[in-house]
Amino acid sequence: MPVPRSREYSRTVEGQNMTIPVWVLLLFAAWTVVLLSGTVGYFRWSRILTGRATIREWRPDEDQGTDWYRRAMRAHANCLENLPLYTAVVIALLVAKASSPWLDVLAVILLVARIAQSTLHIGPKQTELVAGARFGCYAIQVVCMVIMGVWAAVVAS
Length: 157
Description:
This protein has about 160 residues and is mainly α. Helices cover about 70% and strands about 5% of the residues.
């Protein structure tokens, strides 16, 4: 079902409107896979293929690997925890037929904050400043999702 949008903000894929929040949902999912492949997957497979570990050694219920690896695991898990929440918001927007350039901006801000949070989680040394910035990125995502969810509820009522 196409979502009504102004021509200026419309994105068409084979005759169907694809909203910015839906594109962001797809990119959020893609980021989750890239994060898994580029961190956890790389760490594990580099050890398996060089004979330093076997496939069966990797257990989700044990504290394994380096500090960086554990942070990468947590960053990936955090994406997996938040992806369904954003999915629910996007579904609500679609069902309510809510559309606005402001929703588009909020969706893009959410994605940028998600990527920044993941990067801060796995990149620099975890100081108070880095942890604070990481939490700030998370808070931005929560605020964006709350505003978008409320918007959908208001439009639907």
